[in-house]
Specification:
Strand order of the largest sheet: 5-6-9-1-10-11-12-13
Oligomer: single chain
Largest sheet: 8 strands, mixed
Strand content: 15-25%
Structural class: alpha+beta
Number of helices: 13
Helix content: 25-40%
Distance between the termini: 62 Å
Number of domains: 3
């Protein structure tokens, strides 16, 4: 039944920035774990007469993320008031961006990025029991924390495609260092918008459902899969799924209705009168762009090229920036003192699951060296290697033309000659060394 329909999925992702202070006041932005309502001031509490002052670093980081996502950066932008009543919104409106965001028309993994805009976070609702009665408490410590929203085009066609996109976005955010993007703490929140249309139909369906309360990539995938089945069941009955916001219950593995979904006009957006529009010069944007670090895909390509590693190994090593930096530091030290191959260093980090927080690159290299010194290539074994290379000119030529898989054939020939009495890994390294030198 679900094969009759095609999922139309867009994503909204909110990311708290790790600036020192909040978006429009001097209160600290690292609110997590503080005593409730101890990290507030008249501005983030929305008290009468309090005026917002934008956080320059937060604005620059929002633009930097837009650049990292291949967005256009308009030279003119402004803040707007998004008006709605909810208990965790003390002013009765949220300072956000509507028609002039900081970044537009980007792309990541062939998924269109509609916009990347800046806003302030809300307070946090806590459901509790007080004097034996169920109630909802409000903690305003989070109110006013800098929040970037990334909105995609409805280009995603499966839950797995959504999961892969979110994982790559998370990686980029951490690489440029603007947020820890810790989903357990709520500093990165994932909100899929899901609808179905019949296969072959064009245009967008006349409804969409947004799902909130998702704090992992796998839960995002499960929530989307659940909604796809739910929508298909309703459509088969001739019903159109209700346009609404739903929550994800990770324990039950289901979504549940929260409230009807608002349209943009329901928010009565209008320009924020207390904050002047922002105009960028080309020089200012150039400075921000130059401060961007090497991004994950570029790093993968460079590691493949510079260290002769496979795409698979390079992708694993660069998954976390800390691991990539650790690997490169180990290679640098090895070049000076140890002369170990980059492949061996990479294999240890990947396959031995080295705890890089407890083992320094120097300690890692000493461990590898100690292990590799168990068996050494002596003069006789070197003669066997040279003999095998001379006897197999085609395999040697194949290796030099890029067919690196033949190396294991040559290793096998040497091991047969030495009756298995030498170390295969060291033989492999020696063959590679000899063939690349000559």
């Amino acid at each position: 039944m679900e094969n009759k329909y095609e999922p139309i999925i867009g994503l909204e992702i909110h990311v708290e920035l790790k600036t020192r202070s909040k978006m429009f006041c001097g209160c600290r932005a690292d609110w997590f774990g503080l005593e409730p309502n101890t990290n507030t001031c008249p501005v983030c509490l929305g008290l009468p007469g309090a005026l917002p002052v934008p956080n320059k670093k937060a604005v620059e980081w929002c633009v930097a993320l837009g650049m990292a996502l291949d967005c256009e950066i308009p030279e003119f932008s402004k803040f707007d008031r998004k008006n709605y009543f909810y208990p965790d919104l003390p002013k009765g409106y949220q300072i956000s961006q509507y028609d002039k965001p900081f970044a537009i028309k980007g792309k990541l993994k062939n998924i269109g990025i509609t916009r990347v805009h800046m806003e302030e976070d809300t307070g946090k609702l806590l459901h509790a029991q007080v004097n034996g009665e169920n109630c909802t408490l409000i903690d305003f410590n989070r109110s006013g924390v800098p929040l970037v929203e990334i909105v995609t085009e409805p280009d995603i066609r499966s839950s797995e495609e959504a999961r892969i996109f979110l994982k790559k976005l998370h990686q980029i955010i951490r690489y440029i260092g603007i947020s820890d993007a810790d989903m357990e703490k709520g500093s990165m929140r994932l909100e899929p918008n899901i609808s179905l249309r019949k296969i072959g139909e064009k245009g967008l369906p006349n409804y969409k459902v947004e799902v909130k309360n998702i704090n992992s990539f796998n839960f995002a995938k499960k929530a989307i899969d659940y909604e796809i089945k739910r929508h298909a069941d309703l459509l088969e009955k001739g019903e159109t799924p209700k346009q609404e916001t739903r929550g994800w219950d990770e324990k039950k593995g289901i979504t549940y209705s929260q409230r009807s979904k608002e349209e943009a006009h329901d928010y009565r957006y209008f320009p924020e009168p207390d904050i002047p529009p922002i105009r960028w010069s080309k020089d200012q944007l150039s400075v921000i762009r130059k401060q961007l670090p090497e991004l994950p895909d570029a790093k993968i390509k460079r590691i493949i090229k510079d260290f002769s590693l496979t795409e698979y190994d390079s992708t694993i090593l660069t998954d976390e920036l800390e691991t990539a930096n650790y690997f490169e530091e180990a290679v640098k030290l090895s070049t000076i003192n140890y002369q170990l191959s980059t492949k061996v260093i990479a294999n240890w980090i990947i396959n031995k699951r080295v705890d890089i927080t407890k083992t320094s690159p120097e300690e890692l290299l000493k461990m590898i060296q100690a292990k590799s010194q168990v068996v050494q290539i002596d003069e006789n074994e070197l003669e066997f290697i040279i003999k095998v290379l001379d006897a197999n000119p085609k395999a040697v030529a194949d290796f030099r033309s890029g067919k690196e898989s033949v190396i294991m054939f040559l290793v096998g020939q040497v091991m047969r000659e030495t009756k298995g009495k030498t170390d295969a890994q060291q033989v492999k390294e020696k063959i590679v060394q000899l063939l690349k030198k000559s």
